[in-house]
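Note to self: the last two entries modelled the partners one at a time, which told us nothing about the interface. This time every component goes in together.
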Amino acid sequence: MSKVLVIAEHLDGKLNASTARAVSAAQAVKPEAIDVLVLADSVAALAADAAKIDGVSRVLTVERGENARALAAVLAPQIARAADGYSHVFVPSTTFGKDVAPRVAALLGVAQVSDVMSVEGAHTFKRPIYAGNAIVTVEAEPSHVVVATIRTASWPVAGSGNSAPVEALALDVALPAHTRFVELKQGASDRPDLQSAGKVVSGGRGVGSKENFDIIYTLADKIGAAVGASRAAVDAGYVPSDLQVGQTGKIIAPELYMAIGISGAIQHLTGIKDAGTIVAINKDGEAPIFEVADFGLVGDLFKIIPELEAALG
Amino acid sequence: MKILVGYKRVVDYNVRIQVKPDGTGVVTDGVKLSANPFDDIALEEALRLREKGIADEVVVVGIGPADLTAHLRNGLAMGANRAIHVVTADAMQPLTAARVFQKLVEKEQPGLVILGKQAIDDDANQTGQMLAALWDRPQATFASKVEIADGKATVTREVDAGLETIDVDLPAVITTDLRLNEPRFIKLPDIMKAKSKPIDTLELASLGVDSGDYLKTTHYAAPPKRSKGVMVKDAAELVAALKQKGLL
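The predicted structure of the combined assembly is written out below.
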């Protein structure tokens, strides 16, 4: 029988929803147990949150000062040690998981399955290659622990009605001092988080300038959406890179995605494939974004957005 | 300081990928092949460090069949001092590639290894991190800015929450993100010059690397298509449609 260890992702004392998505993927393995591992400098609140996730058998904690920041070189040896006795180690496929999971896999001498979209069996998974333009079925070696990153957009957030037991884990692992955290510059914002928001309004090159992007922010605030952008808008300097949606930015799956002034390059479409409803507003009726949009509206965004806001009341 | 740069050849990013009808792979016959874009960025960063006097030698590494030479010549034309060609007819999974790099690192003793954060064919995003683990050295992934001084690299990383900066002792592995730099174009005279630059050829078997190719790919499929929706005539109709679906 399978036992899955899910590595919790957190920042500033808050558990990232990607953790509960990885738990959903773990449930798909139909294991006898799913344990969540919390590595932090202060674990109590994080462990309490993780214990609520439906399907979790136990929350294991490692509280060390060195775990204050998610440095892969520091976390990986601890995860590799904690993985003993598990058949699977699942990590969200966010920049956190993409950084740390391969380091764990290499320490264990096993392959990693990146970006798991679906679980077909305990050792059989589907994952995207070529920017999602092909989906492969891969079989992992059954005699090895499966280290996998979980494509968050493919999995729902597991419910939160659980109260799993919390246990401190003593790991006798020497940690390296060769990697040090300096700072994290976050795009300060009261808006919903782009990665997990239910609604997202994105602007592209058609928005035209950094100043003009205010129209996107205003609409997003009006409907309680997160703000995103195409790579073209980021490269043009309209918005910071952490707002980028697409293959090389964030891959998201909101219920509502509004693409405004975005033509729909393949690399952008890869990032929104799993969105519930896609709305496209673009002055070019031939733009590829209309091929994937559930609702398309051709016209000048600077005229349409005020009309939208008026119609919203 | 010597810098090793991974230089993978992949299907060009402009090629529309077609899955073979029988599900055994994607069509690669006759399609254009190019350097992995993230590897071009890695090479560019290494060249800039050499131009600043921080590095004195840039070595591009390719793993692949005999005809990979032409691709490595491009890396030399871009400015690398020399190339190492690890010859194998087989495609290689990240753990094996990392083990190959580990052997080359033992031999070459670089101060820095720069790799693309991922190759745009398998999108694995693993090799750099795996090499750092095997080598027991720091990793600075998804780099958008690199500064080297006093035996340390200060690297700004593009993470989901924003921009994270870390300090790592050298030697280390850095993987590149898109905004680290804009790679230079290759000029014709440099192509001529590259012809006289050395390419060391090693058979994969001679490195004594254990295969880490533990994943079997059993099927390829095209992604499910989103069906084209409807066009609305104005903002009011759009809002009404979204309200009806309970989205507003």
